[in-house]
Design a protein that fits this description.
Elements: E1 4-10, H1 17-24, E2 30-32, H2 39-44, H3 59-65, H4 72-75, H5 90-97, H6 105-120, E3 128-134, H7 136-144, E4 148-156, H8 159-167, H9 174-198, E5 203-206, H10 207-212, H11 214-224, H12 232-236, H13 263-267, H14 270-280
Parallel strand pairs: 1-3, 1-4, 2-3, 4-5
Helix pairs in contact: 3-6, 7-9, 8-9, 9-14
């Protein structure tokens, strides 16, 4: 294999990336590793794999990390601590804005070692790996490398739904609503900038559409990738499929069916909706 093929899910937090990567993992040619850049952090805190075992006890990850020559401190370069990474990195933004290709040897070499170990331990029919790390700066580095063939998938949530999901327990905090509204605007701008400047293969989808019509959206993605479609029965029973995803939303451990949650429409304060719309009227 000359280049490792990676489906890279990029988005804000809590925007459906966990659901998307679980659905893509149903395909016979696709294997998800979740938010792989979080691997060092998840190992430190004894995190749980998508298979519901501790990562340190998961047979798949034990094989990947056996005889480890990988410098894990390089893997989480953009996410030194679990949670959100930095939204604004000025030096990177300058390069991204002017479409500069940078040398990423040290970072890419360690990621390449890790992805090669993953390939060695998955079924040979699995041709694409899903990385749902979400971070646009990691995506930028991967796109600048000649070692990977990257297919970015930008999943975008309604801005009001995003802000509500991040603040529903503290809606009276106007400063937080403002900060989250601006965060949504900036992060999606940077994501679109990276995708448009460095990729001809990027796909944009709506979280709301994914939740309402998962079969339609997933098969649309697969057609873009020139892969066979998945039937609706398999998608409906997606939780029966075992995955080895790192990090992500806790929904991956539940048994709930896919459903569109629109509680924000009723429960979000009207003034908060106005604030979000003011900053994101054109997104």
């Amino acid at each position: 294999m000359s280049k490792i093929q990676v489906l890279y899910i990029v988005s804000n937090g809590r925007s459906g990336s966990t659901l998307l990567q679980m659905l893509l993992n149903l395909h016979k040619n696709i294997f998800t590793v979740g938010e792989i850049q979080e691997l060092p952090n998840e190992l430190k805190k004894n995190g749980i794999c998508g298979c519901k075992r501790k990562i340190s006890l998961c047979k798949f990850w034990q094989k990947v990390l056996r005889n480890n020559r990988i410098n894990l401190n390089k893997i989480n370069y953009f996410r030194k601590k679990s949670g959100s990474g930095k939204a604004i990195r000025l030096s990177f933004l300058f390069n991204i804005f002017f479409k500069k290709i940078i040398k990423t040897d040290s970072y890419i070499n360690q990621n390449l070692l890790l992805f090669k170990k993953i390939y060695l331990n998955i079924n040979s029919s699995k041709k694409m790996i899903v990385d749902s790390s979400k971070d646009p700066y990691r995506l930028y580095y991967l796109l600048c490398s000649s070692s990977f063939e990257i297919f970015p998938i930008h999943i975008k949530k309604n801005p009001q739904a995003f802000v509500y999901s991040m603040s529903k327990k503290n809606q009276s905090n106007t400063y937080k609503i403002l900060r989250l509204s601006i965060k949504y605007l900036i992060e999606n701008y940077i994501i679109r900038l990276v995708c448009r400047n460095y990729s001809k293969n990027f796909i944009e989808i709506s979280y709301e559409e994914l939740a309402k019509n998962p079969t339609k959206v997933i098969n649309s993605i697969l057609r873009n990738l020139k892969l066979d479609e998945i039937n609706s029965k398999k998608i409906k029973n997606f939780r029966k499929n075992i995955n080895h995803a790192i990090s992500g939303n806790e929904m991956k451990f539940k048994n709930d069916p896919i459903k569109y949650d629109n509680k924000w429409k009723k429960n979000m304060f009207f003034f908060n909706k106005l604030i979000v719309n003011f900053f994101n009227f054109n997104t």
